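Our platform keeps sequence and structure together, in a single record for each protein. This encoding replaces a full spatial description with a residue-level series of whole-number codes. We quote a single record here, exactly as it is kept in our systems:
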Amino acid sequence: MNSALFVNIFRFILLLTVQIIIFNNMNFLGYISPFPYILFIILYPVNGNKSGLLFASFFLGLILDMFSNSGGIHTAACLILAYYRPYLFRFSFGLSYEYQTVKLNDDLTPERFSFILLSVIIHHTTLFLLEAFRISFFWDVLLRTLLSTIFTILICIIIIYLTKPNRR
């Protein structure tokens, strides 16, 4: 087994644990809920196994649903993000994605930021739409998605920079 697999397993366990212990208990003003656990899906290797990502995303969402008692909305949001991830790569990075030269742990560029932004928007929109499950809550869903996206992106960028490997 190679080191990339161990890094992904460690990232899975760490992000899930931090989400369950710390971030599930945060809710600012009733509208801002951070979900940095999706960094596992975002930072999964570009050349990694696609079906492995779907299975890992399923279990990530399922475990979070069990601890949050949320009825499957995290599982659905994680699976949708994992499914659309290659399309988001192609949209954000263009030809660089085809040659798999993308590393999200490097410096923040507009391409990397757009990929993270679109990933978080897709996840949060799915999550909050399934949570409300009513069209009459459209403005509430839109406000929660916007505010939680901003807060989640800030936390994700901080986590990426704190865990970025040194170049020595």
The radius of gyration is 16 Å. The helical segments are 3-21, 39-43, 50-68, 73-93, 95-98, 110-132, 138-162.
